[in-house]
Amino acid sequence: MAKSAAALTQTGLTQLVVAGGVGANRQLRAALDAAGRARGFETFYPELELCTDNGAMIAFAAALRWRTGLPTPDPRFTVRPRWELATLAAG
To answer: Could you tell me the CA-to-CA distances from 40 to 2, 16, 59 in Å, in that order?
Structure first.
């Protein structure tokens, strides 16, 4: 929640979209809504039944690609699950 609010402040944007499995977290929704009221931004969420984690779908798609001999992703690609907000340039 803090990083989302800081990103909005840093970029000057006033709207936030929360999607994927994290969007089903009711406590996060409440915290973002409260922060939005206090800081002047609006948060949008999909319906709860649409807030699913797509990890299984991604794994299945990768398995199908591997099985059929399609190219695999570039091994130089780096995943950053804990990307520090301070390292992102304002844009």
So the answer is: 14, 11, 38
Q: Tell the burial category of 43 from Cβ atoms under 10 Å away from its Cβ (0-12, 13-18, 19+).
A: buried
Beta strands in 2-89 (DSSP E): 15-17, 42-44
CA angle 21, 27, 29 (to 5 degrees): 65
- Residue 44: what are its φ and ψ, rounded to 5°? -115, 140
User: Considering the entire predicted model, what is its pTM?
Assistant: 0.60
d(CA 36, CA 4): 10
pLDDT for the residue numbered 91: 47
Closest CA to 18 of 2, 7, 38, 4: 4
Strand partners, 6: none
Q: Calculate the CA 79 to chain-centre distance.
A: 13
